[in-house]
Structure formats: C-alpha cells, structure tokens
Design brief:
The chain is an alpha/beta fold and about 425 residues long. It has two domains: about 200 residues, Enolpyruvate transferase domain (UDP-n-acetylglucosamine1-carboxyvinyl-transferase, Chain, Alpha-beta prism); about 200 residues, Enolpyruvate transferase domain (UDP-n-acetylglucosamine1-carboxyvinyl-transferase, Chain). About 30% of the residues lie in helices and about 25% in strands. It has twelve helices and 23 strands. The strands form six sheets. Strands 2-15-17-16 form a four-stranded mixed β-sheet, covered by helices on one side. It has a four-stranded mixed β-sheet with strand order 4-5-3-14, with helices on one face. Strands 6-7-9-8 form a four-stranded mixed β-sheet.
Length: about 425
C-alpha cells in the first residue's frame, strides 16, 4: 500500500506513544514459562507481538486477549508443543528469545519466518544452545533460519559473541530454568541496554545470577518464574520518530506515556536531540520537545541501533556534519539499514557517506530535502524515517509500501495525522 506525504508547516499537540515491543515480548515469554495465570496490562498489539503470542501458544501457554490486557496461563516450564513448527513472521525478537525457551523441552521444534527472518544469522545462538545440551540443525542458508532445536538443555559452559543483544537475552531467559548451572562468556556484546532490560525482568522475578561487567555470567539452575501482573510502558523506539519529526520541523509536541527511568536504551535519543539543539522538558510520564535550529554531532549508536534511520533523517536538517558510528549491527536488522538509508535519502538530495559501521551526513540547515518516490524496503523503521523526512521536504514524497509499519506501530500514520497543523 503506497502512501503519499506532503510537506507541513509545523506539528503541534499531544499523542500517546504505544507500548514497548521489547517489554511486551519479554513479559509474554516469562508469563509463558511461569506457573499460574499472568496479566499483562496495556501490551503492544502489533504483528511482532502477535507472533510472540502464537509462539508461546505453540509452546503450551493458554492465552486470553482483552482490550487492554492479555492473560496468559503459563506452562510452569513444562513445554509440550501443540505443533512442531513456529513461524515468527517478521519478529526477530521472538525468533531469538523463544528459541532458548523451546530448547527446554524434549520435542523437536522448527523455527521459520518471512524472507527477512531467513536472512538473519542465528548460528552463534544455536552453537551456545548446543554447548548447553540442545540438539540443533540449521536448515537455511548461510547460518540463517529455518532451524530446528530439541532439548532438554542441561547446562554447562559456553562462549558467545553477540552482535545482537538478543542472543544473550535468549540465554539469560532460559538458563535459570535448566536443572544444571550455566557459565556464559561474552567476548562481544552490542546493544547492552537491551540485556539490562532482560536482567531487570529477571531481577523482578528474584532470579539469581552473577555477572562481571557483562563479560561473564553464572546462572544457577533449578529456578522458576512466577506469574506476573505488569503494565507495559511506552516505547522509546517508537517515540524516536515523533521526537525527530518535531526536531526537523521546528515544532513543539508532547509525547505521553514515556518514563525516563525505564530501562529502554532508546531513551538516549532524547539527550541526543538536546545536544543537537532541541529544547526538552521531561516529566514523570511525558516528554515535551521543542524543535530549534539543529547542529551536527557525533553519536555512538552501539546501544541504540534502532535509532539510526530517524537520526539519519534528522542529521540532514542540521547545520554541519553528523557522524552515526559504531553500529555495524544495523546491517543485520530487517534490512541493511545503513545501506538502505543512504540509498533512499540520497534520492531526496541528501549528502551521505556510508561507513562500515555507520553513516556520515553533511547537513545544510535551511536547505531541505526534495520529495521523491522512495522505497521502505519492507522495513518498518525505514518507512517511518522516510515519512518524517517527507514532512520537512519540498514537494510530496511517495513511499512504495507502508504495510510493514504494522510490525511495531500499526497506528503510526494515524497519530502523525493528528499532530499536523492545518
């Protein structure tokens, strides 16, 4: 489905940011492994989280979905899958995090997904699960899904390089439930805040573990998850697009449902935009941003790879050079976001240099981009980034297909239309 977006004079008003995908999926997985009935309040309802619902249902959890809450009757860690194939759709988070939990059971389960999922590397995680007792088989090409996995895990020692934090989060979620103890060495870890988020969930479960600077972990086995009743906070990754939209249009908007005390790494974008020149007001559950003349800056995005598309757009409207670096894992997302953002923004007149691990953007404040026909490449974050670029460009922009926004932010364009001033 194509979408044409016209330049705007400004944005104004308040919007409620949807709930966090990362928190919703972690809540679902913990609820699925717990004994008893859990209630997840205000979950994100999107294609990715629906994929996770389907996955935990296959693993044996019972689910009731209501308007503002999902109720999950857990398995107590006793995994008896109802079928032997889990199709995660486009959800990489579900793919990686559910794989470890599936390996707790004795039945062989095959994981697959859409074409993008079938291009995502998974061998590092599977090798570690094999070290811990699983029987694994990669059925796809170049170490990518589909793959099959069969437990039970028994514990032991493993070393894993984590170009995506989801490898480590997967191990941290499943290893407490193994009968034996587990030692994990982590010589490489990117996206550390997402691991901190996983550990926060484990802390709330009173799960025992020891770590030395995220390089070594010891997890005692024989632990259990308890039923939860949790409210899911707003999603900073989704909020990034509205924050950047206000920045490049010189607008003032208020985003409700955001708590800077939350563990999400993308809250760092708030401080990045402040450094670029925006005025920021932070409340207990809201952020108010006032776009002001922007200046180029250097940002290490290793902890915040999902912010790359929106920040690349923002840099185009700043004065001077912006470097977005140390984020090679952005090439391993739904698309190679480094290459794709360079390609699409160059169509609109941007001056961008591609690095192995990021982008260098030469912004010229006062000289806007020009609307063009662009492609979202089936990547929800690329689509939303190009949409906000269109707001401050000359002439209209047409995005070839916007359907992928349903993966994490189904009502993105609806909310965007609400704050466009007439």
């Amino acid at each position: 489905m194509k979408q044409t977006i016209f330049p705007v004079k400004s944005l104004a008003g308040e919007i409620i940011i949807p709930s966090s995908k990362s928190h919703t999926i972690r809540a679902l997985l913990i609820a699925a492994m717990a004994k008893g009935e859990s209630t997840i309040i205000n979950p994100l309802d999107s294609a990715d989280t629906r994929s996770c619902l389907e996955a935990i249902s296959i693993l044996g959890a019972e689910i009731k979905t209501q308007d503002d809450r999902w109720i999950v009757k857990g398995t107590g860690g006793n995994i008896l899958p109802i079928v032997d194939i889990i199709d995660v759709g486009n959800s990489g988070t579900t793919l990686y995090l559910a794989a470890g939990l599936a390996a707790l059971g004795r039945n062989k389960i095959t994981f697959t997904g859409d074409d993008q999922i079938k291009s995502r590397p998974v061998e590092n995680l599977l090798n570690s699960l094999k070290d811990l007792g699983a029987d694994v088989s990669v059925l796809g090409k170049n170490g990518c899904p589909p793959f099959s996995i069969q437990g039970p895990l028994t514990g032991g020692k493993t070393s894993i390089e984590c170009p995506t934090s989801q490898y480590l989060s997967s191990l941290l979620l499943c290893t407490p439930l193994i009968n034996g103890n587990t030692e994990i060495k982590v010589p490489l870890l990117r996206e550390k805040p997402y691991v901190e988020m996983t550990l926060k969930w484990l802390n709330d479960q009173f799960i025992m573990y020891d770590t030395t600077d995220f390089k070594d972990f010891f997890i005692p086995g024989g632990q259990k998850f308890e039923a939860i009743e949790k409210q899911v906070p707003g999603d900073f990754s989704s909020a990034t697009f509205f924050l950047c939209a206000a920045a490049i249009t010189g607008s003032t908007i208020t985003l409700q449902g955001l708590n800077m005390a939350d563990s999400q790494g993308d809250k760092a974008v708030v401080y990045m935009l402040k450094e670029m020149g925006c005025h920021i007001e932070i409340g207990i559950d809201y952020i108010k941003i006032e776009g002001r003349p922007l200046k180029g800056c250097d940002f290490d995005l290793n902890d915040t790879p999902d912010a790359l598309p929106a920040l690349a757009v923002t840099a185009c409207f700043a004065e001077g050079e912006t470097r977005l670096f140390n984020v090679p894992q952005a090439r391993l997302k739904e698309t190679d976001r480094i290459s794709v953002m360079k390609k699409e923004l160059e169509k609109m007149g941007a001056n961008i240099k591609e690095l192995e691990d990021g982008l260098v953007i030469q912004g010229t404040r006062g000289k806007t981009l020009k609307g063009k026909e662009v492609s979202g490449h089936g990547d929800h974050r690329v689509i939303m980034a190009l949409a906000i670029a269109a707001l401050a460009s000359k002439e209209e922009t047409t995005i070839d297909d916007i359907s992928a926004v349903s993966i994490t932010f189904p009502n993105f364009f609806e909310l965007l239309s609400q704050i466009i001033t007439k």
